[in-house]
Amino acid sequence: MRFTSAYVTPQCTPTRSILMTGQYTARNRMFHVIPPYEYPYARMSEVPHLHNLSRDTFILPKGLKQAGYTTAAIGKWHLTTNADGNYNGLNAASSKHYGFDVVSTPLQNPKEISSGDKAVNRFTSEAIRFIQQNKSNPFFLYLPHHSIHNIVAAPDDLVARYRAKGYPATDRNNATYLAALEHMDTAFGRLIQSLDDTGLASNTIVMFLTDNGGIHRHLKPPAQSASHLEICETLFDDAPFREGKGFNYEGGIRVPFIVRWPGHVRPNTICDTPVHAVDLLPTLLSAAGAKPQDTIYGVNITPLLVGKRIPSRPLYWYMPFYELNWAATPSAIIRDGNYKLIEAFGDHFDSSKNYTYITEPHLELFDLSKDPGETTNLASKDPARTRRMRAQLHSWLQSLDAPIPTRNPNFNPTRAFETRRIPQ
Question: Looking at the predicted structure, is the pLDDT value of residue 126 above 70?
Fold first, then answer.
């Protein structure tokens, strides 16, 4: 089953925290990419956030272990920056604190995940070995690859093949990007084949998704000006959606999501019901006969997988921070039905005007059923709906004690784009 309205957050760490906890970032407070950094002179004060997923947090593998599952995390971690693990992976000595029995072999060289096949083949082989070793027992495998995250890389022979077909070396749809996609697809095919070969396919749920939208473009702030952002790199076209990774538009948060569950999910089906990464934990725990040990905000989407419906509900996003690589300012989103409201709390960049910086709050309302590319802002044309959805968004934030950023007393227009690391 392929979902056409599947959502995550615009960036990686927050999505991973949602997937693991079954909680929106407004609740789990891991809404910022780590290691942590801040914009101390920006117009709005950023909201404090967690730098590490706590060992005490109830997360998906802990629930599955309680149900008798053997668990593995093979690949990228990026949920702690302490001795337990980092961007690259979870440390074996600490894995039990997060509910994992097995983790991937530590990297021997940092370049292993920034060049060549980016450890895709190694992680896939380790995953297949884990499956084979646990084929007689219930198991859960979390396999987050480093590809195709920047730095985009792929095996030289694959890149050469795409160059020979006429694809460019740089810019959109370049040979390396396309080769990395094919390389990932081939590895995923190996994984699926291993389930078929071991006779486990009919009793295994496979979920495939990415943690944010495609890398449409990178931006950079001018050296001494707070007037606009400059485009420094364009990599991928997220059409028909607007923008890409890091942005609040559909190109940043609507992603591929595919579920395979033979005997339950009818092959080659499409579901357009909006779903969110927050739904994975309750869905997988339900399938395993387990129960969450903390408050969760997702829903069990198993009915969708078997061709039924689930009640309509709003989806939310909470991003009270700056990230100028993607023109992000403190903001939040609600999607309710076909309508989506984006609120910038105190300032924003107008992407239609060369990413011009505007020191004012901003509301955008889109009807995604008619305008999936978010080309027409309906906020001024439909003020009643805009007010209602904004009130609904603020009510949700208040229910989770999620603070809304306020004016920064240290705001300095000439230094607003400066960033610094937050001491840990």
Answer: yes
What pLDDT is attached to residue 189? 97
> Domain end: 246, 279, 313, which one?
313
- pLDDT at 4 (0 to 100): 97
**What pTM does this model have?**
0.95
Long-range contacts of 397-404 (CB under 8 A, 24+ apart): 397/26, 397/318, 397/332, 400/24, 400/26, 400/27, 402/26, 402/27, 402/47, 402/318, 402/320, 403/47, 403/320, 404/320, 404/330, 404/332, 404/345
Q: Which residues 6+ apart lie within 8 Å of 162 measured at CB?
A: 175, 176, 178, 179
pLDDT at 226: 63
Name the region of 254 (left: φ>0; alpha: ψ -120 to 50; beta: rest): beta
Same domain assignment for residues 304 and 320:
no
Domain that holds residue 225: 2-24+54-313
Round to whole Å and give the CA distance between 80 and 49. 13
**Sign (positive or negative) of CA dihedral 280, 210, 3, 23:** positive
Provide the pLDDT confidence category of residue 300 given band limits of 50, 70 and 90.
very high
Cβ distance 232 to 219 under 8 Å? Answer: yes
193 and 241, same domain (yes or no): yes
Residue 6 lies in a domain: yes
